[in-house]
Amino acid sequence: MKELRFERDKRLLTAADYSAVFEKNRCFKDRAFLILVKKRLVEGEDFTHEKSQPRLGLAVSKKNFKKAVDRNLIKRIIRESFRLHQASLKGLDIVVMSRGTTSVADRAALHTSLERHWEKIIETCGQY
Hints:
Layout: H1 15-23, E1 26-29, E2 33-39, H2 49-52, E3 55-59, H3 68-85, E4 92-98, H4 107-125
Parallel strand pairs: 3-4
Antiparallel strand pairs: 1-2, 2-4
Helix pairs in contact: 3-4
């Protein structure tokens, strides 16, 4: 079960990591989320297990959600959904952004939206 944890190596940590995804990406969006996806480059045969791990970055703005409780709820839902689907998303850097139309009232709709996004991403971007 250790591979299902959301550890530090599965997160986008630096501004450079985020910038790389913002510059060249595939975009998936709906009413609740905008998801940017970028494949990580593979150089030679040194594509280690660590580099094949998908990495997630979150952008949930205070502008859209004034209450910290709401921002934290959205982030928890995104991280949990990513954690459960990470095995299928290997080799991808992903930034999930909430939108102004995202509603925290319907948690099931958020889960369903993310589920559809992961399916599209896996279908479109594949895995290494």
